[in-house]
Amino acid sequence: MKSGICLILIIYLFSYCTSTQELTKDRFSTQKKYAVIPFDCPDKEYGERLSKEVTVWLETFDYEIMNDTEFKKNLENINLTVDDLNKNYNSIVGKTKSVDAVVLGYIKMDKGTTVKGTGSSSGRQISFADRCDVIVVDITSGAIIERTTYIADPDAVFKGKATIEEVAKKIALQLSPH
């Protein structure tokens, strides 16, 4: 009787461990190769700069990121563009083996903020990323394997602390389990 219970426990533990490994494998991990797509933003230059900085930070955390130019060539080969992916990320599912997942960002800009107070910047209009939603999409299944949202602190913006590099670092830290 005891050996039967032990056998059941061993089978249960083995099946639990293998299902946990499957979940871990599907998450955002350094075991996969990624492409970071230029983030969709009303200010295209800002979106491109932020996605490049996120790439730098992810590489710092040992994630393998495909070169942007190389990935765009792969997209051309399957008749897709970065804009196509930003509009419908499922358009790439199953069409390329060059990466395991793509990192996409959607930025909402605050363009109507005026600096108040005294000083040389008083009365000046400032644009900043008010919100950035980032998702990581598995290329094989189309499933979102990770997501995060960065929301700006207006006080940090006015104090000059919300640089693109700092926003990118926060996004990379939120995505990464480091």
Write the layout of secondary structure elements.
Blueprint: H1 2-26, E1 33-36, H2 44-60, E2 64-65, H3 68-77, H4 82-87, E3 101-114, E4 125-138, E5 144-151, H5 154-158, H6 164-175
Parallel strand pairs: 1-2, 1-3
Antiparallel strand pairs: 3-4, 4-5
Helix pairs in contact: 2-6
Could you tell me how far the N terminus lies from the C terminus, measured between alpha carbons in angstroms? 45 Å
Question: Structural class, judged by helices and strands?
Answer: alpha/beta
Q: Compute the average pLDDT.
A: 77
Regarding quaternary structure, what we see is single chain
Main sheet attributes: strand count, strand direction, barrel closure? 5 strands, mixed
**How many runs of DSSP E, i.e. beta strands?**
5
Morphology call: globular
Strand arrangement in the largest pleated sheet: 2-1-3-4-5
Number of helices: 6
Task: Give helix and strand order, one letter per element, not per position.
Answer: HEHEHHEEEHH
Helix content: 40-55%
Strand residues, percent = 15-25%
Radius of gyration: 21 Å
Query: Could you name the ranges where pLDDT drops below 50 across 5 or more consecutive residues?
Result: 12-25
